[in-house]
Write a structure and sequence with these properties.
By secondary structure, this protein is mainly beta. It has a domain of 108 residues: lipopolysaccharide transport protein A fold. The protein has four helices and 41 strands. The protein has a 26-stranded antiparallel beta barrel. Strands 1, 2, 3, 4, 5, 6, 7, 8, 9, 10, 11, 12 and 13 form a 13-stranded antiparallel beta sheet that branches. The protein is elongated, with a radius of gyration of 36 Å.
Length: 664
């Protein structure tokens, strides 16, 4: 065997050029700009002067940097730049691995054919195998019939087999007459396939999601992702339901320099069972950071108030009471801002007509806000708003509200903060059909708020105890009562007040981190002589070894808990458990939620959630999701049970296929 170290000089440079640029001509994205030494080994080397052809035989191996080419025999014709590698052809570099029985390459045109070949892209972990794979252009390959997969086992867990394969490296793959195979067993046929081969954002079909629901029948969701530009994309949705018809949706997203983000969604379905059209439109546009004029839009609209009950399976969507749409334009001034805002609420209660609501609509509201500005030893702030407050078929009003405030603090060991404010509010009522109130009303108020606080602490061997008692007095004096004025927002709640509040916060610090905190707050309403004590407010938090958040109020006179908001989460072995309660006696709400997450085996993950209404409705929602993950695919089975309906969805993810990243 001869060992030859080729240098780029003399007649042998032609052979060097053949072997050190094969990977450039075949599959490499770019070649090296600088000349590098190439080591070539073979058993024999011949040159036919008549036809100007080089022939290397016997275990030909060429190495250049990280690229290695091997073959039993290699032929190169100088006149045509045609190269042929025969027998056990191997090519390997950091990005690509190729095996073939025969390779025919034109080094000038950078085209060629591979026979009985397997092409593996290491970065995106996919391979293409076929009897003939033809390189037709830069990173563009064609095969009359081939198999595609991202599995690296000899018999892949899954693959696509089709005809007229057109693949662009790190881009897309297109084919016709395609069968999806599991362990080489055909299970699904499609006349056409178009999928992304790029782990970044890329145009192509995403994996469809089949499902079944008692209320809507068999379903199939087919999404298509369009990467319009680096900062813009869109997703098109086709939903088919055997009992309800066909739904279509589109979501458009973009981002712009300076913090501009925007997402728009529109959906329509004609429910064939109910013979009704359902529409939904959502938009979220934020431009909060560019220049002096900024704005945002949060739009939510449905044409039927039972849209989410009929068209959604997830509890979070179905239990919504209101849809809130808000838009605002704001102009920054010197330590102040001007804004123009509109807000519209839609009541989703089935018993109300769409749009009918006791909630007021701000159409519009203009405001001027002075940020906190130092004035001597105090801070000054003020707001002034002019609002048009509409309530459908009820008393509405035009309202002007002016609210300036001064804040001052002093003290070191005992700190005292105090606030004094004046508030003037004027109303011009309309739509008052029964003339139950005067047309115009003006009311003013003086507010004073003072709080004193001290921090005490003591160090123990394993923790530090911090206690922070505070005393607050809040008084609002208003000559005119706000009684009889509809409550449009918190402005109307700003009325006659004289409350004294004692609060004690206890904190446990372990190794510099807060491990536990408990705050007790007792209020006293001095205007309520017969029942002055307000409900006792308890807030508690534990961060280790479990996480517990508790917020509850207790009525001294009724001797009962009025409200409770609690969340508990802990880990038992490999199981994450969460438990929550929402209780409000006055509103007759008592709901329990339980969630679990665990992995009984390495490749299996199980999530579940339960929603239970203890006020008589019973079990309202149960969700169980099981996900199985392997090297080149994952399968997620999700089931949801709710009164009158049971649904199942099957989500399949094939690694490296149809999984675009969200807009950057």
């Amino acid at each position: 065997m001869r060992h030859i170290k080729w240098q780029p000089a003399g007649w042998s440079f032609a052979v060097l050029f053949v072997l050190c640029t094969v990977h450039c001509s075949l599959f490499a994205k770019r070649c090296f700009a600088e000349e590098q030494a190439t080591v070539i080994t073979s058993d024999g080397l011949e040159y036919n002067t008549a036809i100007r052809q080089y022939r290397m035989t016997g275990a030909v191996t060429a190495t250049r940097n990280d690229a290695v080419i091997k073959a039993d025999e290699l032929l190169y014709a100088e006149g045509t730049s045609e190269m042929t590698a025969v027998g056990n052809v191997r090519y390997e570099d950091q990005a690509t691995s190729i095996t073939a029985n025969r390779a025919e390459i034109n080094l000038e045109a950078k085209t060629g054919k591979l026979y009985d070949a397997v092409f593996l892209h290491k970065k995106n972990k996919y391979n293409l195998s076929g009897r003939v794979i033809e390189k037709k252009g830069e990173d563009y390959y064609y095969s009359p019939e081939a198999t595609f997969t991202t599995c690296d086992t000899p018999v892949p867990d899954w693959c696509f087999r089709g005809k007229e394969i057109n693949a662009v490296r790190e881009d897309t793959i297109r084919a016709r007459d395609v069968t999806f195979r599991i362990r080489d067993l055909p299970v699904i046929y499609s006349p056409y396939l178009w999928a992304s081969l790029n782990t970044a954002r890329h145009t192509g079909f995403l994996m469809p999601t089949p499902g079944y629901g008692k209320a809507r029948g068999a379903s199939l969701t087919i999404p298509f992702f369009w990467a319009i530009a680096e900062n813009r994309d869109a997703t098109f949705i086709l939903d088919t339901f055997s009992k309800r018809g066909i739904g279509t949706g589109i979501e458009y997203r973009f981002v712009e320099p300076g913090g501009v983000k925007s997402s728009w969604w529109a959906y329509h379905i004609r429910d064939t069972q109910l013979d009704r059209h359902f529409f939904e439109v959502r938009a979220l546009h934020e431009d909060r950071d560019r220049g002096k004029v900024t704005g945002f839009l949060n739009l939510n609209y449905v044409n039927q108030n039972d849209f989410f009950q009929e068209a959604q399976t997830y509890r979070e969507a179905r239990i919504q009471r209101f849809l809130d749409s808000t838009g605002e334009i704001s102009a920054s001034l010197n330590n102040a801002r001007l804004y123009l805002l509109s807000q519209y609420l839609v009541d989703l209660q089935p018993k109300t007509a769409l749009g009918a609501s006791s909630a007021p609509q701000k159409l519009p509201e203009a405001g001027y806000v002075i940020n906190y500005t130092r004035t001597g030893e105090a801070l000054f702030s003020a707001t002034a708003t002019a609002s048009n407050l509409q309530i459908k078929d009820a008393v509405s009003a035009a309202r002007l509200d002016v609210y300036p405030r001064l804040i001052h603090g002093f003290g070191k060991d005992i700190t005292v903060s105090q606030k004094i404010g004046l508030r003037g509010t004027g109303y011009a009522f309309y739509n008052d059909e029964d003339h139950s109130r005067q047309k115009d009303l003006l009311r003013g108020a003086l507010e004073y708020d003072a709080a004193a606080q001290i921090r005490l602490f003591r160090n123990f061997p394993f923790f530090t105890h911090v206690m922070e008692p505070s005393l607050r007095y809040h008084v609002i004096y208003s000559p005119k009562s706000s009684g009889g004025i509809p409550v449009y927002d918190t402005t109307e709640l700003f009325g006659k007040t004289s409350n004294l509040e004692l609060s004690i916060l206890n904190r446990g610090i372990i190794k510099g981190n807060e491990a536990i905190s408990v705050r007790l707050t007792q209020g006293l309403d001095t205007y309520n002589g017969s029942r002055p004590f307000l409900p006792l407010h308890v807030e508690a938090g534990i961060k280790t070894p479990i996480v517990l958040l508790l917020d509850t109020t207790y009525d001294h006179y009724a001797r009962r808990i009025e409200t409770t908001h609690s969340d508990l989460s802990l880990k038992i072995n490999q199981v994450n458990l969460t438990v929550g309660q929402r209780y409000n006696r006055k509103e007759e709400i008592n709901v329990y939620t339980v969630g679990t997450e665990f992995s009984p085996l390495k490749n299996i993950q199980i999530n579940s959630s339960v929603w239970y209404d203890a006020k008589g409705a019973g079990l309202r929602d149960v969700m169980v999701a099981l996900k199985y993950t392997k090297q080149c695919w994952s399968l997620k089975l999700e089931t949801i049970k709710r009164p009158g309906d049971f649904s199942v969805r099957l989500m399949v993810e094939l690694a490296g296929v149809g999984s675009p990243i969200a807009t950057k």
